[in-house]
Design brief:
6 domains, mainly beta, about 0% helix, Jelly Rolls, twelve-stranded parallel barrel, Pectate Lyase C-like
C-alpha cells in the first residue's frame, strides 16, 4: 500500500517492489457475551432446527454494540478465554503474527500438557461444536495431525483430529508454507463434529489434552455451538448424484457422476440432489443456465477434493437462474497461488441466480465472480479458513446482494466489490459478520457506483487493512454515484500497517489511483475499540464525504487521521476514550486554499476537536469494550484536555511519566504552576500549592506497551486547568530519543540540494532497539549508518537534506520506526526559485502495468509510481511540459522507504519540441536508486528549450520493468 507525500509512503513487498495488491484471478478468475437478538422462525434447509434463536454479534462484544446487525446465524460463538480452564490465558494483544493477536477478541487459551483443558458451559441446547484452534507447525512445514479429547458432561465422547495443514503461512505476499521464509501468521484452523445427541443449556463441553493427544501445545480461540437439525429430505422429482455412481463414502472419485447428474437435471429442468455423505470431486463442476443443486444440509452433504469448485459460464454470457444450497465445499488448498483456479464458486452466475446455506472452507477464495453480469443473491452462507478473499464481485457485477453471511479467517478481504474494468453498481452488502481477515479489509469497495454496505458487523482486522474501506484502488473504475455505509459496527478493527509503520483506520478512504469525489454517505456507524485511528482519509484527494451519527468509542490513537486533500461534513460524530493526546492527526500543509482538508461542522460533534502533528503515539487498546474493571488495571478513561472547575469541585488532573512493563517507577506530581487555590492529590494525600509528592507505579508484566491515563482528584477555586494525562508504558527495550524535535533548512533553492543536517538518535533503554525503517516525507531525503539495530546506550546519526520541488514553505518529517515507538522529527524550509515544471503535467508511456498509471509520474506523490509493461524492454515514459521551456535539470524518483531494495536502471534521456523528433540529452547510463539516499537520481544537462522529455529504460535490476514514482523537471 502507498501513501501521499504528506505522510510516510509504504514500502514494497518481498522484492522491495510494492505492497500486496489485489490479485487478478483470471477467468475464474467468550463466556457467552454473545446474546440473542430476537427469536425468529427460520428455514430448515440448512439442516437446522425448525426454530432457532439467532445471534448477530461476535465473541468479546457487548450486546448493545451489535444488536440488530450482522449475520443471523444458528450458533453461539464463545471465547475460550472466558471459559473455565487450567491452561494459560494469553494476554490480549494487537500484534500481528501472534496467537493472541489473531484470535477473535484478541485473547486465547494455550493447553500445554496432559490434563490441561478448556470447559464451556452451554447457554442454549446444542448437538455440535466447531473449534477454532492452532497447533504448532512442523519444522519444515509438512502436514501432520494430532488428536484432542472431547468430553461431554465429564465423559469422553470422542477425539477430534486437528492438523497444521491449512494454517501457518510464511514469507511475503502471496505467502508460502515453508517456515524458513519467516513472518509466520495465519495460525488458526477449525474442526467441527456432531455430538450424536442434544445437550441442554448448562451442559459442560470440555476440550482436554489426554495421554494420546500428542501435539506440543493446543491453542483454543473459541468454539461455536449449534443445534443442528436432521438431514433434509430429497426434493420430489430431483436426480441424485448417487444415481449416476457417486460414492457417498468418498473412497472413489465422483467427479464424472456429478457432471452426468448436472447434465441430466439441466435437460429435464429438475434438481440435482446431493444426499448425506462425503463426495470426492477433483475438478470444477460447470453449471449452465437453469441448474439447481441442493443438499441435505451443510453438516451432511459435503463435496471435497483437490480443485473442487462450482463455476458458471464466463461473462459476458453468464449462467442464469442457477440455484445452489444446503451443502458444503471443502477444498484442500494449503498455500496461496493466485494463478490457480481453486475457489469454492466462480465464473459468472446472474439472471436471478441464488447461493444460500453453503459452508465453504479450505479453498483459495470462497466465491469469486467475474462480470459483467446482473442479479446474483448470496445469502446465509458460512465461509472460513481461506487463503484469499471470502466473497469478491469483480468487474461490472450489478444489482446483486451479499447478505447474512458469516465469514471468518480469510487470507484477504472478507467481502469485496472490485470494479476493475466495469463498475460494480447497485450492489448491497448487508447483515454480514466478517471476522479476522488475515490480510486486507473486512469489507472493501474498490470503485464502482451506488453501492451500499449496511447493517454489518466486522471485527479483528489483522494486517494491511481496516474494518470497512472505500478506495479508488487496483485500477478500479473511479467511485461515482452515492456509496452508502450505514448501521455498521466495527470491533477492534484497523491495524498497524507493517510498511507504513502507523495505523490504518477502522473506517478508511484511500484515493490511490485517482482522486475520490463520488458521494460517500456514512450514517449510524459504530467504531468500537479501534486498534489505531477510527476514521482515516488518505491518498490524493477524498471529497464529498458526509458522516452523521457516528460513534467512535475507544481508539488506539486518533479519532480522525487526515492524510489527503479534500473535504467532509460531520454531524453528531462523537468520540470517547481517544487513545492519542489529540482527536485529529493532521500534518498537511494548510497555507494555501487548495492544500487543506476541509472539515465542516454541522453540529453535535464532540471528543475530537484538537489537532496534532508529530510523533505517533503508542496505541491505547481496550480489548473488550466497555472494559470491565477488576481493580488491577489502569483506568481506561482519559480526562478532558481542559476542565472548568469551581471552588469545592472535584476534578481530574493528568500526569505524564514512563514505566517499563513489569517494573516500577516513581511518579512525581507537583502543584507548581497550577491556578491559584488548586490542590491536587494522589488518593487522599493532598499537595499544597507549590509542593509535590510521589507515588510508585507498578505495571503487570503482561501490560502491553502503550499510553494509559492515570487520574488524580482535587479541589480548586474557579478556573480552567489544562492537563496532560499520559502514563507511557514501554517494554524493556526502553526508548529511542532524537536530539532535536525539528530542523529548519535556511537558504533552500528549488531544484538544488541543501547541505545535510544531522539528527542524533540515542537508545536510552536497557537492551537493543531494532530499526524497522527510516523514511522522510515531502521534498526531504536522508542517509544514515544506523543499521538495523542500535545497542543499549549507543547512538547513530541520520543526515537529512532537502531538494525543494517548488517555491514557498516546504514541510516534511523524518520518521524513524523502531520496535517501541516511532520517532518523528519535523522538517521545514522556505524555498526560492523556479518550481517543478512537470508537476501535474500530462505523461504518456510505451506501456503500463495495471494499477500503476502514468498519472503517478507527475502527481507530486512520491508514494505512487508508474510501472511499465513487464518483461518488455525497452520501455519509455514521456512528460509534456505544455509549451517549449528552457530546462537543464531532472530528478527521477522511486518511493523512498527502505523496504524497496536498491536497484539500477539503465536510462537514456531524450528531448523534443514537437513530440515526434527526439534528440539525446544524456546517453544511456546506469543510475542507482538507493533507498538509503532517498531513492532519487538527479541529472543535469546543458540548458535546452524543450516541450517533451522522454526517459527510455532498457534494464532494471530490481524488477523486469521500468519504474518511476516522480519525474521532476527544472530550469
Amino acid at each position: 500500500m502507498f501513501k501521499t507525500s504528506a505522510q510516510p509512503v509504504s514500502p514494497a513487498d518481498d522484492a522491495g517492489r510494492r505492497s500486496p495488491r489485489k490479485p487478478k484471478l483470471a477467468a475464474l478468475g467468550t463466556a457467552a457475551l454473545v446474546v440473542a437478538a430476537v427469536a425468529v422462525t427460520v428455514s430448515t434447509r440448512g439442516g437446522g432446527a425448525s426454530a432457532a434463536t439467532l445471534h448477530d454479534t461476535v465473541a468479546g462484544s457487548a450486546p448493545s454494540l451489535t444488536a440488530g446487525r450482522g449475520a443471523a446465524v444458528p450458533f453461539v460463538e464463545v471465547e475460550a478465554a472466558n471459559a473455565k480452564t487450567n491452561g494459560t490465558v494469553l494476554a490480549p494483544s494487537r500484534t500481528a503474527g501472534t496467537l493472541a493477536g489473531e484470535a477473535i477478541g484478541r485473547r486465547a487459551v494455550t493447553l500445554d500438557g496432559r490434563g490441561k483443558y478448556v470447559e464451556f458451559t452451554l447457554t442454549q441446547p446444542a448437538n455440535s461444536i466447531d473449534v477454532r484452534y492452532s497447533i504448532p507447525d512442523s519444522s519444515d512445514g509438512s502436514p501432520y495431525t494430532a488428536s484432542l479429547s472431547l468430553y461431554l458432561n465429564g465423559t469422553k465422547q470422542k477425539s477430534l483430529t486437528l492438523t497444521n495443514k491449512y494454517s501457518w503461512y510464511y514469507g511475503a505476499y502471496p505467502f508460502v508454507n515453508t517456515p524458513a521464509s519467516g513472518n509466520p501468521h495465519h495460525f488458526y484452523d477449525e474442526v467441527h463434529t456432531l455430538f450424536g445427541k442434544e445437550l441442554p443449556a448448562g451442559a459442560k463441553v470440555r476440550l482436554q489434552v489426554d495421554a494420546e493427544d500428542t501435539a506440543k501445545t493446543y491453542t483454543i480461540d473459541l468454539a461455536d455451538f449449534e443445534d443442528v437439525g436432521s438431514p433434509l429430505a430429497q426434493p420430489t422429482g430431483s436426480v441424485s448424484v448417487t444415481d449416476f455412481g457417486a460414492d457417498a463414502s468418498g473412497a472413489r472419485d465422483s467427479t464424472k457422476a456429478f457432471i452426468s447428474a448436472i447434465a441430466s437435471a439441466a435437460g429435464k429442468g429438475s434438481t440435482v440432489w446431493i444426499p448425506p455423505g462425503r463426495f470426492e470431486v477433483d475438478k470444477h463442476l460447470v453449471v449452465d443456465n437453469n441448474v439447481t443443486i441442493d443438499g441435505a444440509g451443510s453438516w451432511y452433504s459435503i463435496v471435497t477434493g483437490e480443485g473442487v469448485g462450482i463455476y458458471g459460464n464466463s461473462a459476458p454470457h453468464p449462467s442464469t437462474n442457477v440455484h445452489l444450497s444446503n451443502f458444503a465445499i471443502e477444498g484442500t488448498v494449503d498455500e496461496r497461488v493466485d494463478a490457480d483456479q481453486v475457489n469454492g464458486l466462480g465464473g459468472a452466475m446472474g439472471g436471478g441466480s441464488t447461493i444460500s446455506h453453503l459452508w465453504i472452507e479450505h479453498t483459495k477464495v470462497g466465491m469469486w465472480f467475474d462480470g459483467p453480469f446482473d442479479g446474483l443473491s448470496i445469502t446465509h452462507n458460512r465461509i472460513d479458513n481461506l487463503t484469499a478473499d471470502g466473497v469478491n464481485l469483480h468487474d461490472g457485477i450489478t444489482n446483486s446482494v451479499i447478505s447474512n453471511n458469516f465469514i471468518r479467517n480469510t487470507g484477504d478481504d472478507g467481502i469485496a466489490l472490485w470494479s476493475e474494468h466495469d463498475p460494480d453498481t447497485d450492489d448491497v452488502i448487508s447483515f454480514n459478520t466478517v471476522e479476522a481477515p488475515i490480510l486486507a479489509n473486512n469489507i472493501a469497495v474498490y470503485g464502482g457506483a451506488d453501492n451500499a454496505v449496511t447493517d454489518d458487523v466486522v471485527s479483528d482486522t489483522q494486517t494491511q487493512g481496516g474494518g470497512i474501506h472505500v478506495g479508488n484502488r487496483f485500477n478500479a473504475v473511479g467511485l461515482a454515484g452515492t456509496t452508502t455505509i450505514a448501521r455498521d459496527t466495527a470491533l477492534r478493527t484497523g491495524v498497524l500497517d507493517p510498511n507504513w509503520k502507523y495505523g490504518v483506520g477502522a473506517l478508511w478512504f484511500w484515493a490511490d489511483d485517482s482522486p475520490m469525489n463520488g458521494a460517500i454517505r456514512v450514517d449510524h456507524v459504530d467504531l468500537i475499540d479501534s486498534s489505531y485511528e477510527g476514521i482515516q482519509f488518505t491518498g490524493a484527494s477524498v471529497s464529498n464525504v458526509a458522516l452523521s451519527n457516528v460513534r467512535i468509542a475507544g481508539t488506539g490513537t486518533f479519532a480522525l487521521q487526515i492524510e489527503s486533500h479534500g473535504d467532509a461534513t460531520f454531524k453528531n460524530v462523537v468520540a470517547t476514550d481517544v487513545g492519542a493526546p489529540a482527536g485529529i492527526y493532521n500534518c498537511l500543509y494548510t497555507g494555501g486554499d487548495d492544500s487543506a482538508f476541509t472539515m465542516k461542522d454541522l453540529g453535535g460533534n464532540s471528543g475530537w476537536n484538537t489537532s496534532f502533528c508529530g510523533k505517533w503515539p503508542a496505541p491505547l487498546n481496550h480489548y473488550h469494550y466497555p472494559k470491565p474493571s477488576d481493580g488491577n488495571d489502569f483506568a481506561f478513561s482519559a480526562p478532558p484536555a481542559t476542565q472548568a472547575v469551581r471552588a469545592g469541585d472535584e476534578f481530574t488532573v493528568g500526569v505524564s511519566t514512563s514505566v517499563v512493563s513489569g517494573e516500577s517507577e516513581q511518579l512525581k506530581l507537583s502543584s507548581a504552576g497550577a491556578p491559584a487555590g488548586v490542590k491536587v492529590a494522589f488518593a487522599s494525600t493532598a499537595i499544597a500549592a507549590g509542593g509535590d509528592t510521589a507515588m510508585t507505579v507498578t505495571t503487570q508484566s503482561s501490560t502491553p506497551p502503550g499510553n494509559y491515563p492515570i487520574t488524580v482528584t482535587g479541589t480548586a477555586a474557579t478556573g480552567t486547568h489544562s492537563t496532560t494525562y499520559r502514563l507511557v508504558v514501554a517494554d524493556a527495550t526502553g526508548a529511542l530519543v532524537a536530539d532535536t524535535a525539528a530542523l529548519t533548512f535556511d537558504g533552500a533553492s528549488v531544484g538544488t540540494p541543501t547541505d545535510a543536517k544531522p539528527i542524533r538518535l540515542t537508545n536510552t533503554g536497557k537492551s537493543p532497539i531494532s530499526i524497522g525503517s527510516i523514511t522522510t516525507t515531502g521534498d526531504y531525503t536522508q542517509s544514515n549508518e544506523c543499521g538495523t539495530t542500535i545497542a543499549a546506550g549507543s547512538s547513530c546519526t541520520v543526515n537529512v537534506s532537502l531538494m525543494a520541488t517548488a517555491a514557498g514553505p516546504r514541510a516534511g518529517t523524518v520518521i524513524i520506526s523502531d520496535d517501541v515507538n516511532p520517532v518523528v522529527v519535523t522538517l521545514s524550509a522556505t524555498a526560492t526559485g523556479s518550481s517543478n515544471l512537470a508537476l501535474n503535467r500530462s505523461a504518456t508511456a510505451s506501456g503500463t502495468q495495471d494499477g500503476y498509471p502514468t498519472t503517478n509520474l507527475t502527481d507530486g506523490n512520491s508514494g505512487s509510481y508508474w510501472e511499465s509493461t513487464n518483461n518488455a524492454f525497452p520501455q519509455w515514459a514521456d512528460v509534456d511540459l505544455g509549451a517549449p521551456t528552457a530546462v537543464s535539470k531532472v530528478t527521477l524518483a522511486l518511493p523512498p522507504p527502505s523496504a524497496w531494495s536498491t536497484r539500477v536502471q539503465t536510462i537514456t534521456v531524450l528531448g523534443s519540441t514537437d513530440g515526434t523528433a527526439y534528440t539525446t540529452l544524456l546517453p544511456a547510463a546506469q543510475y542507482t536508486f538507493d533507498p538509503a539516499k532517498g531513492n532519487e537520481v538527479r541529472l543535469a544537462f546543458p540548458t535546452a528549450t524543450l516541450r517533451y522529455l522522454r526517459f527510455e529504460v532498457t534494464a532494471n535490476t530490481g524488477w523486469p520493468a521500468a519504474q518511476f514514482s516522480e519525474i521532476e523537471v527544472y530550469q
